[in-house]
């Protein structure tokens, strides 16, 4: 168990993303908004929680068959694109205040997804060898 990860900038960002996605989900569900709005927020909360657990339990180091930071970047980019479309629709249509609040929270979540993508891009370098068998420089 990596107890330092939740206190790191990436860990705190993942936790904030999960909590904000849950708040967005609850706003959409409580306002009886379109099911797609709630589904997107719920999936974002679930997938981000799985990545948070992956990093906290250090499973990314044990399951080396996938380059997990790159998968995390793809998740953040795709989530940001979907959030942009869905939350703009929710804000433009604003059928009630709950839908409007969910749309605004979703746009804030979009900003966190972009920040997470930038932090992950700074962390990885595709030209640098990975693992223990990499030659020392």
From TrEMBL:
Keywords: Membrane, Transmembrane, Transmembrane helix
Residue stretches spanning the membrane: 12-31, 37-57, 69-93, 99-121
Subcellular location: Membrane
Main subcellular location: membrane
One Pfam family recorded for the sequence: MARVEL
InterPro entries: Marvel, MARVEL-CKLF_proteins
Source organism, top-level taxon: Eukaryota
Coiled-coil ranges per UniProt: none
Residue intervals of the MARVEL domain: 5-125
Official protein name in the record: CKLF factor
Gene label: Cklf
């Amino acid at each position: 168990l990596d107890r330092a990860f939740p206190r790191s900038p990436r860990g705190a960002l993942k936790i904030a993303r999960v909590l904000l996605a849950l708040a967005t989900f609850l706003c959409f569900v409580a306002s009886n908004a379109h099911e797609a709005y709630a589904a997107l927020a719920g999936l974002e909360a679930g997938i981000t929680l799985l990545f948070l657990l992956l990093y906290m339990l250090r499973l990314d180091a044990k399951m080396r068959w996938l380059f997990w930071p790159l998968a995390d970047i793809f998740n953040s980019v795709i989530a940001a694109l979907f959030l942009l479309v869905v939350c703009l629709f929710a804000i433009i249509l604003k059928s009630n205040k709950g839908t409007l609040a969910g749309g605004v929270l979703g746009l804030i979540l979009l900003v966190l997804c972009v920040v997470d993508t930038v932090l992950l891009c700074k962390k990885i370098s595709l030209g640098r060898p990975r693992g223990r068998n990499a030659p020392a420089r």
